[in-house]
Design a protein that fits this description.
This protein is mostly helical and 325 residues long. It has a domain at 25-244. It has helices at residues 3-35, 42-60, 62-66, 68-71, 73-103, 111-132, 172-194, 196-206, 208-213, 218-244, 251-266, 271-291, 297-311, and strands spanning 150-151, 246-247. It has a two-stranded antiparallel ribbon.
């Protein structure tokens, strides 16, 4: 491969992974923007979405999915979109339940208390994923070695869309990621800007007390925010599993750290910032893996984050806020 081809290949990898990270980062930044809570359990909700998707694939018959000739390409596309919607709704509902049971009673508690609670929920969900990995299903390894990574089957044709003679690989998985994530991001942006609930979210984010005085049901707004954030995490989990072909009970830690970094890099609380931060993290990781070394990638990512925050503490697209004294 020529240097140009290598660079283009890394751009494809970076953009594909970056779009997945951006979806997870949107969940972080929406919740923080509304209730100023860093929901560290978000990455583990993402993990359970992937386990649900793999369980559904196994229940429907993994062999049919693996054999493209038997299932048919169009059937696999329908299954993929069904998994995205199903995992999204599952994770959204789980996120709302966590808020009702854990976060809502602590809404007036000190921020440190809420943070510790979020970390506690994270550990609980990690263990739920570990137990889930021990379910005696063939697709989960037959119940043996619950902690071992689980293979996610190839659901789409793996041939190169640019032609078999091309050294740059563009697969259907890459196209699927863009075909699913971009409409979700556009739809979310329009929802927040154009709908009544979206305006309520923006008002609550700016001043929850004033929003309540204006007749906005802030509890409903917060529940909707957790629902949407969870849905984004669930959709992203299916994309992650499809693209990487493996899941594990600890996958939410890596994805959550990347997404949280992306949210901070772009400006936590800013939706466009989360999208931009996710894409940048994906590209930085891909370029570092190729041109520096894999073991230095985390150093490069967090080095870039620190460098940007030194000169722009609010993030790339974050708004500067005056501290009240």
């Amino acid at each position: 491969m020529t240097e140009t081809e290598v660079f283009l290949q890394q751009v494809i990898y970076g953009l594909s992974n970056g779009m997945i990270i951006a979806l997870v980062a949107l969940g972080y930044t929406m919740v923080y923007g509304i209730v100023e809570l860093i929901n560290f359990a978000h990455g583990d909700v993402f993990t359970l979405g992937a386990f649900l998707a793999l369980t559904v694939v196994g229940a429907l018959g993994a062999a049919a999915v693996l054999d493209l000739g038997t299932a048919g390409e169009s059937s696999n596309w329908l299954l993929l979109f069904g998994l995205v919607i199903g995992a999204g709704l599952f994770c959204g509902g789980l996120n709302v339940a966590i808020d009702k049971v854990v976060y809502k009673p602590l809404r007036r508690a000190p921020k440190l208390t809420q943070l510790v609670a979020a970390i506690g929920v994270s550990f609980i969900l990690i263990n739920v994923a570990l137990f889930w990995g021990g379910v005696p299903m063939e697709v989960l390894g037959g119940g043996n070695a619950a902690a071992a990574p689980k293979d996610f089957p190839e659901m789409l044709e793996t041939s190169n869309l640019l032609g078999e003679e091309s050294n740059v690989m563009l697969r259907l998985e890459d196209v699927a990621i863009f075909a699913i994530t971009i409409p979700i991001m556009i739809g979310l942006t329009l929802f927040v800007k154009k709908t009544r609930l979206g305006r309520g979210m923006r008002a609550t984010a700016q001043n929850p007390i004033a929003a309540k005085l204006m007749g906005i049901d802030t509890d409903r707004v917060i529940s909707a925010t957790f629902l949407i954030g969870g849905f984004l995490g669930g959709a992203a989990s299916v994309m992650w599993a499809l693209y990487n072909n493996t899941i594990s009970f600890q996958m939410g830690f890596r994805a959550g750290m990347d997404a949280f970094t992306a949210a901070v890099l772009g400006g936590i609380g800013s939706m466009p910032g989360a999208m931009l931060g996710g894409v940048l993290i994906g590209l930085i990781r891909a370029m570092s893996d190729q041109y520096i070394a894999t073991e230095w990638t985390n150093v490069v990512v967090f080095g870039v984050l620190i460098l940007i925050l030194v000169f722009r503490p609010s993030g790339l697209l974050g708004l500067k806020q005056r501290e009240k004294v």
